[in-house]
Write a structure and sequence with these properties.
The complex is a heterodimer of chains A (about 100) and B (about 550). Chain A has about 100 residues and is mostly helical. Helices cover about 80% and strands about 5% of the residues of chain A. Chain B contains 19 helices and three strands. Chains A and B meet through strand 1, helix 1, helix 2, helix 3 and strand 3 of A and helix 5, helix 9, helix 10, helix 12 and helix 19 of B.
């Protein structure tokens, strides 16, 4: 057993910090995996099944154009969802830990 | 030069006006540049939205602006596919990198990577990788300048002196911005340029769509009808038509081309968050929340710009007389799509504006790269490796300024030598090295507690070495008619982009190195400090002018 801990080690071991880390990781890891799969899946279909992309939707607009634009939409949506999540679930905890540490 | 386009005098005048305005701004904002933090990080005084616009300015290089519109005009859907990779990549920066980097580091990527490792070897590795990526990116930008000059100033490629003088003038201006303005001045140049670029593109998009009753399908239809086929440089006839609207024109020719595109897609999506000149921008804001807002603004602006590019690309194919065929064979190749479209829509004046924006783009991006390379050399190599952390901040900034001049001179020389060379693969290499050497190391050091010095050295040098060697052995360098050295053939690696091999290899090497290496000194305490600082911002670098926090005391528990 160590009998000397730095302030940072003490904070790192606190339940509040563990909650902050877990909230961050619970959001960013699955979300990163999801958008990578969605993007790489799209690239794979575009490369190996271009006929799917050629199916017409409206006039000259085809599935490829629509799915490509959906990549833009999903990027904007994930950005918005993350900003809301971080503002509501991450920032208050981070601020509270930081304020107490810097007031030490 | 086969065709005359617009008036070079007008093109130069609009560009000169841009230079004048930005110089005034740079001189005004830089009057109180004093400390190292002012020079490298603009005193951390920019707001998130300001920095977001500047990031868009930094990221939308000439390759993005002229290259993507051109790729769509000539290769249709494949150009669009390319732009999506460039955008989605920003989610990696937003979710995994930006805020944690901002809280942990001071000026450079090396600050973060070496935080809990042995300082000297890891900083040396981070600086090596920063310099390699920045110099390759720089070289590609400067080489592109030659093609632009040929197109916009009507100085033919055969006129080495004429083009050389223009490249030297651009280089001298860039050095002035960096020396006088530091990061603050450079950031304002990026902001002004991004504004011009977006307004210029929006004007053209409205114009193009207006001609088609704001019906995007009708625009696509006209692009399809006007371009039934084209004759390539080798004389083969390539069928276009409806193929412009589906993937495969550029990358679908063979199984190898498809795998090559996958490799490129991976490098694009993972490389952005490892580009040192992008990472350095996160230090110009006061805290992690502002870093987050910067990325959000950047994502929106970059996304909107790529949507504009989609319209401009198909618009050029539809509206430029001669369509894809003429664009592909114009001076500057497919890069000429946006300027040709501007001329078609708004005549000499709009072409002049777009040309000036294109030059401003090269100028601004090169300035951003120069300040990044000089900061890494002065902060990581000089202050921390040579002076072992004992250099005065004044001396550090002095070294940074001298390095900036040297980098500028190298950029001008390289730009003149590399004119008309096929160096497009250098941008792909910059992204591949960033994705292979930098991103795995950044992610491991932020998220994997056991990661150590040996692991960091293995992933940086491994990723760097493998990607550079594979590029040298690729068809981009030798063995094909479009290669840099077409007369020799040592292309034993089949892919033009090494990402598919080098990125997983670097992740693997980082893990193996970590398991084989020894635990670093005080690893637990340093990891605790890094993680608490990264997630909460406690102890992170503050904006100048605010009081510095006192160092954390050790406490007994």
């Amino acid at each position: 057993m160590r009998d000397e801990q730095t302030l940072h080690e003490w904070v790192q071991a606190s339940p509040e910090f563990a909650e902050l880390r877990s909230r961050l990781r619970r959001f960013v890891f699955p979300m990163s995996a999801a958008f990578m799969l969605w993007y790489l899946g799209y690239v794979l279909v575009a490369s190996y099944a271009p006929r799917v992309m050629a199916i017409p939707v409206l006039g000259y607009i085809n599935v490829g154009i629509v799915v490509g634009l959906l990549q833009f939409v999903s990027t904007f949506v994930i950005t918005g969802v993350y900003v809301r999540y971080a503002g509501a679930r991450l920032d208050p905890v981070a601020d509270s830990i930081r304020t107490r540490m810097e007031g030490h | 030069m086969s065709e005359k386009l617009g008036s070079p005098i007008l093109n130069i005048s609009v560009f000169a006006a841009f230079v004048l305005v930005t110089l005034v701004v740079v001189f005004r904002v830089s009057r109180n540049n004093r400390t190292a933090s002012d020079y490298y990080a603009a005193g951390r005084s920019f707001t998130g939205p300001q920095n977001g616009v500047a990031i868009a300015g930094d990221y939308l290089s000439a390759a993005s602006f002229l290259g993507i519109a051109g790729a769509i005009a000539v290769n249709g859907y494949d150009g669009f596919l390319y732009s999506i990779g460039f955008l989605v990549a920003w989610l990696v920066a937003l979710l995994l990198v930006a805020e944690l980097m901002r809280n942990t580091g001071k000026f450079t990527m090396g600050d973060v990577l070496s935080f809990r490792m042995r300082q000297r070897p890891v900083r040396a590795a981070a600086a090596t990788s920063t310099l390699v990526v920045s110099l390759f990116y720089l070289l590609a930008q400067m080489a592109g300048a030659g093609a632009l000059i040929a197109l916009l100033l009507q100085i033919p490629n055969s006129n080495t002196v004429g083009q050389g003088v223009v490249i030297a003038v651009v280089g001298a201006l860039m050095i002035t911005y960096v020396l006088v303005g530091g990061m603050k001045g450079t950031t304002w140049v990026q902001i002004i340029k991004a504004g011009l670029l977006l307004v210029g593109a929006a004007t053209m998009v409205t114009w193009v769509l207006g001609r088609h009753a704001f019906d995007f399908s009708e625009l696509l239809g006209e692009a399809v009808e006007k371009n039934p086929s084209m004759t390539t440089a080798t004389g083969a006839v390539k069928e276009l038509g409806e193929k412009l609207l589906i993937p495969g024109l550029q990358y679908g020719a063979s199984d190898l081309a498809k795998i090559d595109f996958l490799s490129l897609a991976l490098a694009l999506v993972l490389g952005t968050a490892g580009l040192p000149h992008i990472l350095m921008r996160f230090y110009t804001v006061p805290n992690a929340q502002e870093a987050r807002r910067s990325v959000v603004w950047a994502i929106w602006l970059i996304g909107i710009f790529y949507l504009f590019s989609l319209v401009l690309g198909y618009g050029a194919a539809a509206l430029v007389p001669g369509g894809a065929q003429r664009i592909a064979t114009a001076p500057g190749g497919s890069n000429s799509a946006a300027p040709l479209l501007a001329y078609q829509l708004g005549g000499e004046f709009l072409l002049g504006v777009i040309s000036a924006v294109a030059f401003a783009t090269i100028l601004a991006v090169v300035a951003g790269l120069t300040i990044t390379a000089s900061a890494s050399f002065a902060h990581d190599v000089y202050a921390n490796l040579i002076k072992r952390g004992a250099a005065s901040p004044d001396a550090e900034v002095r070294v940074a300024r001298r390095t900036a001049v040297l980098v500028g001179v190298v950029a001008v020389a390289a730009g003149i030598l590399a004119r008309n060379q096929n160096v497009a693969f250098l941008v792909a290499l910059a992204f591949a090295v960033a994705a292979s050497a930098n991103l795995p190391t950044i992610l491991y050091s932020l998220f994997w507690k056991r990661f150590n010095t040996m692991g960091a050295l293995c992933s940086i040098y491994g990723g760097l070495g493998i990607s550079v060697v594979l590029i040298v052995l690729s068809p981009a360098v030798s063995g094909s008619p479009t290669a840099m050295v077409p007369s020799l053939d040592f292309a034993v690696f089949p892919l033009a982009n090494p990402g598919l091999v080098s990125i997983p290899a670097s992740f693997l090497l980082g893990a193996i190195g970590t398991l084989l290496g020894r635990k670093d000194e005080a690893a637990d305490a340093r990891h605790a400090e890094m993680e608490v600082r990264a997630l909460t911002g406690a102890g992170s670098e503050k904006a100048t002018g605010l009081k510095k926090p006192t160092p954390m005391p050790k406490i007994q528990v």
